[in-house]
Design a protein that fits this description.
Blueprint lengths: L1 E5 L8 E5 L6 E3 L6 E3 L6 E2 L4 E2 L1 E2 L2 E9 L3 E8 L4 E8 L1 H4 L2 H14 L10 E7 L2 E7 L6 H7 L2 H19 L9
Antiparallel strand pairs: 1-2, 3-4, 5-6, 7-8, 8-9, 9-10, 10-12, 11-12
Amino acid sequence: MSISIQCPNPACGKTSVTSLNVTGRRVRCKQCGQSFIATSPGTIDTNTNLPTLIGRFQIRAKLGSGAFGVVYRAYDPQLDRDVALKVSHAAVLSNPRFVERSLREAKSSAWLRHPHIVQIFDAGKDVDRYFIASAFIDGKELSDTLSSKLSSRRCLLCRQTSQRTETSRRGIIEISGK
């Protein structure tokens, strides 16, 4: 059996057909020489029950989920770094206004540079899913930090005020304050 794989290099993007036994292994694009892990789009890792690839991003772990979708820790082979990849639920796609608003919010947020705002690297669509790739920040859950220190609430309020000042300066109104 064979699979079709696409080079993650946006300057190349060449699709080639190869044998199924290379899935999960590092391969090299014959066109541009880019090295990447061969995965079949839509493939689910049977050990983790997670998708293996969304766009060019290689899924490593599930971080959480919410109303918009699921957030994964993923690897970006193009930029050689881990990212937080927010992927929409299928129900989100049925509402074009929500999709438009989400992509507009990602585009606006990509311009923001502030120590308390997570940087957006990419946004787009992969087959039937929209995604937003942002900086992956390793650390403790915010809820753990807040429950351990009373003064953390004051610190959080200062950060949120700082964030809102930066976003309003750029003409952006944040819909969800977290």
